[in-house]
Every structure is written in structure tokens, then in C-alpha cells.
Design goal:
Layout (H helix, E strand, L loop, with lengths): L3 H13 L3 E7 L17 E5 L6 E9 L3 H8 L4 E6 L5 E9 L2 E7 L8 E2 L11 H4 L10 E6 L6 E5 L7 E4 L5 E3 L5 E3 L5 E4 L15 E3 L5 E2 L26 E3 L4 E6 H5 L4 H13 L28 E3 L5 E2 L8 H4 L6 E3 L6 E6 L1 E2 L14 E3 L4 E3 L1 H8 L3 E3 L3 E3 L15 E3 L8
Parallel strand pairs: 4-10, 6-7, 22-24
Antiparallel strand pairs: 1-2, 1-17, 3-5, 4-5, 6-8, 8-9, 11-12, 13-14, 13-16, 14-15, 16-17, 18-19, 18-21, 20-21, 23-24, 23-27, 25-26
Length: 426
């Protein structure tokens, strides 16, 4: 029990900590961006209650070209969305301040209205240099999330974000339409897709169905391809409310939404570090070289060292690095990853193992016993099983399962393998 003084201290100090609504975590990064997290460009972003509400809600609709419509567009202090129907006609929807919500904007632009700057994720790439040459498909002002400032702090997602002059422009080519209640709505070029897992983000999670979110936050079935002119069918029974484990795809990067409550049940980095030390304390050995293996510290998570465990992905036998079973074609420098396991003669890729360090991707706190195929990222069995079932958008119309820690497409029957460690012989 607290003494009254202690109780006072804990309540006064807690008032300084802002309420956290949740966090967005970019898939494909193992705890931080390759060149380190900087400013608004990082691998995860916390959405916290703002000192002053900055949310907006729709108010007046103007059909252009009338003087008020033009004024609304040019008014730098007024948020508005402009729907260009033709050269002769634009509908402008003015937005007013909403004191009940906080707005957070996500996109590729580094302009000030963007709270979280997201760039394209290149699967398995270790440096941002790998990603620069790619023509980005992420919108500069991709989406916005509005969080209720009062419990239960509901977070809702909308396609498109307001630019520096507080406008969203949907040009002639964008899909747009008049709704049944005479309001306007539309979709962005490459769309904002959302998937809510069934049974939340837990050991029992199952993939949900991918949907597209409109500029006004309505839910639609997917278009035939990302930028098709024809919208999908409206799904009346679903909402744009984010739940723990919701995935948001911006066509080039996928974000995982974790609620503050969900994160409180997630393993901490301390817990993952304790699990790493536990594996190392068991002194697993290489069955060929008999040397002791050890997972490197979380900070050294990109360069293999001599104690690094390696795995034969076909069978799951863990070894140290060795040249045994090196086939002729490999010695000649062709297709270098296939090896024959000395324990069971299974042939397949032979890769170093890396711990999954981004705790937000774990569905439970169990020990890291399984590795994704083909990248060798290690996590708990339930976590591996969950991600191997999730179809993530890839390109403009395909989906495939990928490792959450490096975004590499999963291969093999299951997409992951159980690790078989050999204990010390003494």
C-alpha cells in the first residue's frame, strides 16, 4: 500500500504524462529505421493527447464556382476538401474546429502538417540508400487519424490528409461521388486499406478482410487494382474505427495500430532481453564445431558475429557458421544459400538467426522458438503463426505473407520453422 504522501506523489507525477491513445508501428523494421530514428521519421510513432484539441469536422458545403467556395479554398485558416467534378464544377466542403478530437496526419511529405513521415519499405533492406531510387507510391498526405479526447479514446481513420494550406484536393481523375445524403466522398489515388484482425491482437487472432477507407471515413470493398477509377461496394456493417492490431496499408508501407491497452499486455524490450539471455544461458552448441552459440545483443542486430546461431530452414537444426555441406555450385559462387544439414541431410537455405526486437509485433510473451523463412528472424510460435497467415498488400493488386521485422516475403510450406537447438554435451 502507498502512504498518503506517496499516493500524492504518484498522482501529481502522473498528471504530467499525457494520455497515450496508441502507437503506429511500421512493418519491416526491427525496432528502428536502418539509419536510426530521427524527428518525425521513425519506425514507430506514439499518438498522445494534445495540450489543445486540433480535430476538425465537416460543416458548410459549397458548390462552385461561387465566390464563397473560392474564398473557402483560399482561406489559409479554414480546413476544406475540394472535389473537382469537371472544369466547370468543384464542390468544396468546409471543416470547422472540433474540440472533442485530436488529429494526427501521416504521409511521405516532410511539411509541417504531417506528424509521422513514412517512406516506402523495401523488403529486407538494411539501409535507406536501398530505398531512395524507388519512385514512391505513398501519398504525400496519405491519411489522418482522429482520436476522441475522452475515454474510450476511439481512433478513426480517414483517407487523405490536409496540406500546408489546410486543403485536400481531389482532382478530376480521383474517384469521387455524391452520397445519399447529398454530401461528397472520394478515394485517394492509391487508396488507404485497413484490415482489422478477428479476436483482437492476441494468441487467438485471425486475419480479417482488407477494406478501403474513403476520404470521409466510409468503408468499401477493394477496387480491382489500387488506382482503378471504379470504387468498391460500401460495407455498411463495418466502421473506420481502429482496433488493437488493425493494419493500415498506404501502398508502399504498412502500419500496425496498437492501442495503449494492447501495448500494456505486450512483452517489453526488457522481457525480450531476458528471453535472449535465457537462451544464451542454456549454452546451445553447434553440433558440428561444438562451439557455444549466443544471440548477439539487441543493439548489434545487423552484423553476424562468430557466436551467431545459423539455421537450416528446411529442418530447423541450429548450428554455428561452418563450411560443411557446401555444394560445388556454391563454392563456384552460384546460388549460395542452399546447404545440406549435417544432422538430417535436409537441403535448403542456411541463414543466420536474428532476434525480433520490435515488441509491438508479438502476440504473446512466450520464448522465441521459431524463425521466419527465409530471413531467419526469431520470435514466439504464436507470433510466427499469426504473421504467416496475414496477407499483406504488395504492389497494386497482389498480397502475400511477410516477416513483420524485415518485410521479406515468406517462403516454404508454413513460412516459418521450429528451431532445434543442441544443448551442451558436458
Amino acid at each position: 500500500m502507498y502512504s498518503p504522501e506517496q499516493e500524492n506523489i504518484s498522482t501529481t507525477s502522473s498528471t504530467k504524462v499525457p494520455v497515450k491513445y496508441g502507437e503506429l508501428i511500421v512493418l519491416g523494421y526491427n525496432g528502428s529505421l536502418p539509419n536510426g530514428d530521427r524527428g518525425r521519421r521513425k519506425s514507430r510513432f506514439a499518438l498522445c493527447k494534445r495540450p489543445k484539441a486540433n480535430g476538425v469536422k465537416p460543416s458548410t458545403v459549397h458548390v462552385a464556382c461561387s465566390p464563397q467556395a473560392a474564398k473557402a479554398i483560399s482561406n489559409k485558416d479554414q480546413h476544406s476538401i475540394s472535389y473537382t467534378l469537371s472544369r466547370a464544377q468543384t464542390v468544396v466542403v468546409e471543416y470547422t474546429h472540433d474540440s472533442n478530437t485530436d488529429m494526427f496526419q501521416i504521409g511521405r511529405s516532410t511539411e509541417s502538417p504531417i506528424d509521422f513521415v513514412v517512406t516506402d519499405t523495401v523488403a529486407g533492406s538494411q539501409s535507406n540508400a536501398d530505398t531512395q531510387s524507388v519512385q514512391s507510391t505513398i501519398s504525400r498526405f496519405a491519411c489522418r487519424i482522429l482520436c476522441q479526447r475522452t475515454p474510450p479514446y476511439t481512433a478513426r481513420i480517414y483517407a487523405a490528409g490536409f496540406d500546408s494550406s489546410k486543403n485536400i484536393f481531389l482532382g478530376e481523375k480521383a474517384a469521387k461521388w455524391k452520397t445519399s445524403d447529398s454530401q461528397m466522398d472520394g478515394l485517394t489515388t492509391n487508396g488507404v486499406l485497413v484490415m482489422h484482425p478477428r479476436n483482437g491482437f492476441t494468441q487467438d487472432s485471425k486475419p480479417g478482410v482488407w477494406r478501403e477507407i474513403s476520404v470521409c471515413g466510409n468503408v468499401f470493398t477493394l477496387r480491382e487494382t489500387r488506382s482503378a477509377q471504379q470504387r468498391g461496394k460500401m460495407v455498411e456493417t463495418e466502421t473506420q474505427e481502429l482496433v488493437d492490431g488493425s493494419l493500415i496499408d498506404l501502398c508502399g508501407a504498412t502500419l500496425l495500430w496498437r492501442t495503449a491497452e494492447g501495448l500494456s499486455r505486450t512483452p517489453t524490450l526488457k522481457h525480450l532481453e531476458a528471453l535472449r539471455q535465457e537462451i544464451n544461458a542454456a549454452r546451445p552448441q553447434c553440433p558440428v564445431g561444438f562451439n557455444t552459440l549466443a544471440f548477439p545483443s539487441m543493439r548489434r542486430k545487423d552484423t553476424p558475429d562468430e557466436k551467431q546461431p545459423w539455421v537450416y530452414l528446411q529442418c530447423g537444426h541450429v548450428h554455428g557458421y561452418h563450411n560443411w555441406g557446401n555444394h560445388r555450385e556454391e563454392r563456384e559462387g552460384r546460388e549460395g544459400r542452399h546447404r545440406e544439414c549435417p544432422m538430417c541431410r535436409a537441403k535448403g537455405p542456411y541463414v543466420p538467426l536474428w532476434l525480433g526486437c520490435e515488441a509491438g509485433f508479438y502476440v504473446d510473451a512466450a520464448p522465441p522458438t521459431h524463425a521466419f523463412n527465409p530471413c531467419g528472424h526469431v520470435c514466439s510460435e504464436k507470433t510466427a503463426a499469426f504473421w504467416s497467415q496475414i496477407p499483406l498488400p504488395h504492389g497494386t493488386h497482389t498480397f502475400h505473407a511477410a516477416c513483420p521485422f524485415c518485410a521479406q516475403q515468406l517462403t516454404g510450406e508454413q513460412g516459418y520453422v521450429r528451431l532445434i537447438f543442441q544443448g551442451p554435451l558436458d
